[in-house]
């Protein structure tokens, strides 16, 4: 939990950063940024266009091809150290902007502000210590022995497209390892949360020596702006976090020029609660996790698989937690759940709950707007039981404070239900017998699994999805290598 030095709604910088210049779009068009906790306009952001994106990509291309950025490791280390210090200085400002544009409760902003700032330092050190030239030994060939060396080289121009749920964290996670590895970057933040991106641009321009063109931020309200980045032939790689539908569009757009693509997409993760689990530990936490980010988390275990032998007991524990959950003003440190990001998102969440009930699910609690919160896009924590594993609510990502409970009879059946999904991002297992829980975890077709609340997620370990949840990894040694190509050089063995 964080100590907050300053509070109150704060607008971010309106401008984007292209080729070293903080600027508005030509003509000066802007779009409104809405505070989801009040439904009021909190300020504006410049409405960048496809032309602005083309200029930013051109600047990044030039900076990669014509400057020493990609070859000067010590200079990159210097710049990212400056960036880390600058983020530290701007920490409270970034936190207030985050709460203003996302509605994230102040009490849980640590993982969205402190963690990514620490990660800048991590990537600077990791990138400095990385072995860019590795001797791969002598190999027999028909023409005699050849020594091979592997030279890790930056991919080139990286386009980073980010979503609105954890904007500052993902802006950092998608760009800092790319920069440290020697790439140049164009960041396109989500239109609902432009300021976490524009402030990053302002800080780079005003408080670091990162050269013009190496890092660009293009803010715009049209999806075409992100689409232009993902299709531009001058871009070598796209790194993206967001919905699976947009991920498919980005893959297709990059196909023409065979872009390297790193995708972290949707999830419908399952939490298998085994019959020997400690329900009093596992289930209040399961309910809490569904609420703290208003359910707007891709790794949220939103399907709870309960053994039929302890079904009613499990539902009662989660219902009690959700009925008493502190929802409201994100600036009040007593609240753990804020609003949904927008009216559209809340309508989508409530629509999926209505459909679930029509499909035969039982509404245990929630399903509407909290009575004491008529203003702001708030949603009641919602528990649905008796969910059909094939129904829409069990198959589609909700991105709201909604849990779908599914009963099962045997471990095998639970594994089959968990794997009955187009997604494979995360999973969770709770159980008293750790070996049994581990066996179940290895059978889940997902990129990551948490056992008994011990999180899989962190900067030191690879994170990525299987099936339609993504391609490639963030974090860990794997997450850095994503931004490098491995060039093998064969040479005489002397
Ligand atoms: P949501 O639907 O919840 O807004 P998305 O996955 O569509 O989430 O959006 C995530 C990011 O992808 C945003 O920055 C958005 O502007 C961008 N985006 C949307 N459509 C496209 C597209 N066709 N190509 C590239 N980026 C896109």
UniProtKB/TrEMBL annotation:
Domain Aldehyde dehydrogenase: 29-489
GO molecular function list: oxidoreductase activity, acting on the aldehyde or oxo group of donors, NAD or NADP as acceptor
Coiled-coil segments: none
Database matches in Pfam families: Aldedh (PF00171)
UniProt-listed InterPro entries: Ald_DH/histidinol_DH (IPR016161), Ald_DH_C (IPR016163), Ald_DH_CS_GLU (IPR029510), Ald_DH_N (IPR016162), Aldehyde_DH_dom (IPR015590)
Enzyme active site: 264
PROSITE patterns found in the cross-reference section: ALDEHYDE_DEHYDR_GLU
Membership in a protein family: Belongs to the aldehyde dehydrogenase family.
The name this protein goes by in its record: Aldehyde dehydrogenase
Organism: Mycolicibacterium bacteremicum
């Amino acid at each position: 939990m964080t100590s907050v030095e300053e509070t109150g709604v704060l607008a971010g910088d309106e401008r984007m950063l292209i080729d070293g210049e903080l600027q508005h779009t030509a003509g000066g068009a802007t779009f409104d940024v809405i505070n989801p906790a009040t439904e009021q306009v909190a300020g504006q952001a410049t409405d960048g266009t496809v032309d602005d994106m083309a200029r930013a990509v051109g600047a990044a291309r030039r900076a990669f091809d014509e400057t020493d950025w990609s070859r000067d490791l010590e200079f990159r280390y210097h710049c990212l150290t400056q960036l880390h210090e600058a983020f530290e200085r701007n920490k409270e400002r970034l936190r207030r902007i985050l709460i203003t544009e996302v509605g994230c409760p102040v009490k849980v902003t640590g993982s969205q502000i402190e963690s990514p700032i620490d990660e800048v330092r991590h990537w600077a050190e990791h990138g400095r210590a990385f072995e860019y030239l590795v001797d791969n030994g002598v190999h027999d060939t028909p023409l005699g022995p050849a020594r091979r060396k592997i030279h890790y080289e930056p991919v080139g121009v990286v386009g980073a497209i980010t979503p609105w749920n954890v904007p500052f964290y993902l802006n950092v996670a998608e760009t800092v390892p790319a920069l440290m590895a020697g790439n140049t970057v164009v960041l396109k933040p989500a239109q609902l949360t432009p300021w976490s991106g524009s402030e990053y641009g302002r800080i780079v321009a005003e408080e670091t020596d990162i050269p013009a063109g190496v890092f660009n931020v293009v803010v715009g309200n049209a999806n075409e702006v992100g689409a232009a980045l993902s299709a531009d032939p001058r871009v070598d790689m796209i790194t993206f976090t967001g919905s699976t539908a947009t991920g498919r569009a980005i893959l297709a757009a990059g196909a023409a020029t065979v872009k390297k693509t790193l995708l972290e997409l949707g999830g419908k993760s399952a939490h298998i609660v085994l019959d020997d689990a400690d329900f009093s530990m596992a289930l209040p936490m399961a309910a809490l996790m569904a609420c703290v980010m208003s359910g707007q988390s891709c790794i949220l275990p939103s399907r709870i698989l309960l053994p039929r032998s302890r079904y009613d007991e499990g539902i009662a524990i989660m219902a009690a937690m959700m009925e008493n959950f502190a929802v409201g003003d994100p600036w009040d440190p007593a609240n753990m759940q804020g609003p949904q990001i927008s009216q559209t998102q809340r309508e989508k969440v409530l629509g999926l709950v209505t459909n679930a009930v029509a499909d035969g699910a039982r509404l245990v609690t929630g399903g509407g707007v909290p009575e004491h919160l008529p203003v702001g896009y708030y949603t009641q924590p919602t528990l649905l039981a008796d969910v059909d594993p094939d129904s829409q609510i069990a198959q589609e990502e909700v991105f709201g404070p909604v849990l779908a409970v599914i009963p099962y009879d045997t471990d095998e059946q639970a594994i089959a239900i968990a794997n009955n999904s187009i997604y494979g991002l995360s999973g969770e297992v709770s159980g008293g017998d750790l070996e049994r829980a581990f066996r179940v975890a290895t059978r889940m077709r997902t990129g990551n699994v948490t056992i008994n609340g011990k999180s899989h997620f962190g900067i030191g370990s690879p994170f990525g999805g299987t099936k339609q949840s993504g391609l490639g990894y963030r974090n860990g040694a794997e997450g850095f290598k994503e931004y490098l190509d491995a060039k093998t050089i064969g040479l005489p063995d002397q």
